[in-house]
Amino acid sequence: MRAGTGLDDQGFFVPEGALSRVRPPFDAVLAAARPRLEEAFADRLDGAYLYGSVPRGTARAGRSDLDLLLVLAREPGPADRAAAGELAAGLDEEFRQIDGAGILLMGRERLLSPAERHDGGWFLACLCTPWFGTDHVPLLPRYRPSSLLARETNGDLGARLPLWRERVARARTDAELRLLCRAFARKLVRTGFTLVMPRLNAWTSELDASALAFGDCYPQRGAQMRRAAAVAREPLADRALLAAFTEDLGPWLAAEYARVHGVKSEENPKRGG
Questions:
Q1: Polymerase nucleotidyl transferase domain: from which residue to which, for each copy (predicted)?
Q2: Domain co-membership, 47 together with 110
Q3: Please, is 138 exposed, middle or buried when counting C-beta atoms within 10 Å of its C-beta (0-12, 13-18, 19+)?
Q4: Judgement on whether residues 133 and 158 belong to the same structural domain of the protein
Q5: Are the CB atoms for 224 and 244 separated by under 8 Å?
């Protein structure tokens, strides 16, 4: 692996997580989650994966969330999404080690399709850690940083902004505003990093490192991105901050992304809907 780049000696992404990196405070959560997932989805569950800070070994007890991806034998429907939401809420309520839980669902056929090759496929192969069930990673190619990868993973920011504004307008509680703050900030920081990823020929999922790398390339927006990284970890119930995301940093970033990499094709919808 090339030191500090997230890539190997040939320039391919190195999978960033491993089950061996899961820290003891989170073992109990995973031990409880697995039988519940197996019971809820039964033979529809083809493979389960971890992603985010828990398999990277950087999760903080009581501060980090638990992120799971379930690959189903068929395309998920409303009942599957409802079951996933109920399971995630139950884990969040029961275990103080985590601050939120999220379960992404994808159908196996769609995940392995050419349309998902540089979005869901890359996400699975490079950012997810096989947990139990079928490991689909050997069916996918290896990946290098590229403009195509940047466009297909985060070239949808402009299309998301109207929905973000609607969600802020509907929010009524501080808890809702904090959830939106964390979600929007994470998306902005990750989009900012993938904007510069091909230029740097490097990869990181760490928010602070992503913001700093972006700021090196766009110093005029660096302070805003560092602020987004900070509130992604410690979200605020601040409508003014959310307005800055949706009316200033977000539109600028979407326009610059489209100029540099193009816009994600409508035929390739974002994973998870």
A1: 45-76
A2: yes
A3: exposed
A4: no
A5: yes
Burial 158-172 (b: 16+ CB within 10 A, else e): bebbeebbebbeebe
- What is the Cα–Cα distance from 208 to 233, expressed in whole angstroms? 10
115 and 33 within one domain: yes
Query: Does residue 170 register a pLDDT over 80?
Result: yes
Residue pair 189/155 in contact (Cβ under 8 Å)? The answer is no
Which tens digits make up the pLDDT trace of 64-114? 999 999 999 999 999 999 999 999 999 999 999 998 899 999 999 999 999
For residues 253 and 232, is the Cβ–Cβ distance under 8 A?
no
Q: Is residue 227 helix, strand or coil? A: helix
Spatial separation of the C-alpha atoms in residues 45 and 38, rounded to whole Å: 7
Q: Phi and psi of 205, rounded to 5°? A: -100, -10
Query: How far is residue 112's CA from residue 106's CA, in Å, rounded to a whole number?
Result: 10
Cα–Cα dist 151/147, whole Å? 6
- Domain C-terminal end among 83, 114, 139: 139
32 located within any domain:
yes
Residues 247-272 have pLDDT tens digits of 999 999 999 999 999 999 765 444 43
Token pair for residue 193? Answer: 């990093």
Half-sphere exposure of 2 (CA within 13 A, CB side): 13
- pTM of the predicted structure, to 2 decimals: 0.89
Structure tokens at 144: 């290098």
Distance CA 49, CA 108 (A): 13
Integer-rounded Cα radius of gyration of the chain: 18
**Exposed, middle or buried, 115 (CB in 10 Å: 0-12/13-18/19+)?**
middle
